[in-house]
Amino acid sequence: DQQVKQNSPSLSVQEGRISILNCDYTNSMFDYFLWYKKYPAEGPTFLISISSIKDKNEDGRFTVFLNKSAKHLSLHIVPSQPGDSAVYFCAAYTGTASKLTFGTGTRLQVTL
Amino acid sequence: GAVVSQHPSRVICKSGTSVKIECRSLDFQATTMFWYRQFPKKSLMLMATSNEGSKATYEQGVEKDKFLINHASLTLSTLTVTSAHPEDSSFYICSALARTSGRRNEQFFGPGTRLTVL
Lengths: 112, 118
Hints:
The structure holds two protein chains of two kinds.
Chain A: E1 4-5, E2 10-14, E3 19-25, E4 30-38, E5 45-51, E6 56-59, E7 62-67, E8 72-77, E9 86-94, E10 101-102, E11 106-111
Parallel strand pairs in A: 2-11
Antiparallel strand pairs in A: 1-3, 3-8, 4-5, 4-9, 6-7, 7-8, 9-10, 9-11
Chain B: E1 4-7, E2 10-13, E3 19-25, E4 32-38, E5 44-51, E6 57-58, E7 67-73, E8 76-81, E9 90-98, E10 106-109, E11 113-117
Parallel strand pairs in B: 2-11
Antiparallel strand pairs in B: 1-3, 3-8, 4-5, 4-9, 5-6, 7-8, 9-10, 9-11
């Protein structure tokens, strides 16, 4: 039962353009969402997060949007850079629980 | 950010042997650590929650007798894969929970351990 889904396994974007990574969830109890970046054979590194009481959070080139009614969030990276090439996971927390539920990941390739 | 290390980073073992993986929080104390497993091109699957000084809580479908977890101190948790088989080959990642100012507890991830069972 995959409660957090990333329906695009891969995405290719040209350098300088916007990358949009999408994530859908089914559990309405999720109230805090995070995006992680992961390189092969490394652990995930935290990128940006958003609380369910907000609909947008911005940090430099990274912006996360949350649409609670649609149970959908997205990560925008602009401008995209070759160093952004990695696998991106969205993840979600439930209430006070510290357990993270991860999505299936999207491999982003930023081309020159 | 906080640093979490894992050792070893890569291990190859024969079928039937046991392998121990260490997870350490280097600059903070972690009362809770998590162990994940990642299959190729798949999501990270939570295996168990490790609490210092108490028994680990395993997720459904994870054999606790096969994946032994010990959290003996506030900076160290170990995962022992007992009687390893080729199907146990995977990428194992730990994370440690730290309280960050102004936000809920945040998980910091280790670099992972690649286990290959021949």
